[in-house]
UniProtKB/TrEMBL annotation:
Residues 1-25 form the signal peptide. It comes from the Bacteria. Keywords: Signal. This is Pentapeptide repeat-containing protein.
């Protein structure tokens, strides 16, 4: 015998049939592996040195105090992840997305992160000593007192970034960096050749700390306040 649906029942049936299929939940219990999904998982205070997380979805993951030294996070998505006091020392992070991460006092020392994005990231007092960051983006990042000792910053974008008290004086710039509207209060640029840097304005230079060997773009002049006194924390 044929069955007949009421108009109300038919509407409910059609709504259920057209409802989107729920996305798969993150597999927080899985072990580290390439392309896994740890989105929004808690991975705090773990020893994950040398883990292979290439291409993994780590968006919003909490890695506070976690040791990821030597890990492979190439092309991984870490957007909005928490990396407070975490270590990615010596990690491979080429093309990784670190946009909007929280990474106060974290170590990226000697990281290989060419082409990575740190846009909008919170990186106060982060350690980038010896890091390779060619073509990386730090647009709108908070970098107060970050350490770039001997880092390679060729073609890096610092547009709209807060570079307060950042020491860039021992970094390497083999291609022009971009400083458009970056805040450069007491940014150390002693000895740097910034003659081809993009976006620099006199107001930024007046706030920064250079010396007689600092080379500036055409049209900018050395402030009378240079050199700045050595800073003591």
């Amino acid at each position: 015998m044929a069955t007949h649906r009421s108009p109300l029942g038919l509407l409910a049936f059609l709504l259920l049939a057209s409802a989107p299929i729920p996305t798969r939940a993150a597999d927080c219990g899985s072990t580290a592996s390439p392309k896994l999904d740890w989105q929004e998982c808690s991975k705090k205070n773990l020893m994950l040195q040398g883990s292979d997380l290439e291409g993994a979805n780590l968006a919003g993951t909490d890695f506070s105090l976690t040791d990821l030294a030597g890990a492979n996070v190439k092309s991984a998505n870490l957007e909005k992840a928490t990396l407070v006091r975490a270590s990615l020392e010596g990690a491979h992070a080429e093309g990784a997305n670190f946009a909007k991460i929280e990474a106060y006092r974290s170590s990226f020392a000697n990281v290989a992160a060419d082409g990575a994005s740190f846009a909008g990231a919170e990186l106060q007092r982060a350690n980038f000593a010896g890091a390779r960051l060619t073509g990386a983006s730090f647009e709108k990042a908070e970098l107060g007192r970050a350490d770039f000792d001997k880092a390679v910053l060729t073609g890096v974008k610092f547009s709209f970034a807060n570079l307060s008290r950042v020491d860039l004086s021992k970094a390497t710039f083999e291609g022009p960096p971009t400083f458009d509207r970056a805040f450069m209060f007491l940014t150390r640029i002693e000895g740097l050749d910034l003659s081809s840097a993009a976006g620099l304005e006199q107001a930024q230079i007046d706030l920064a700390c250079g010396d007689a060997s600092t080379k500036l773009p055409s049209g900018l002049s050395t402030p009378a306040t240079w050199p700045c006194p050595a800073e003591h924390e």
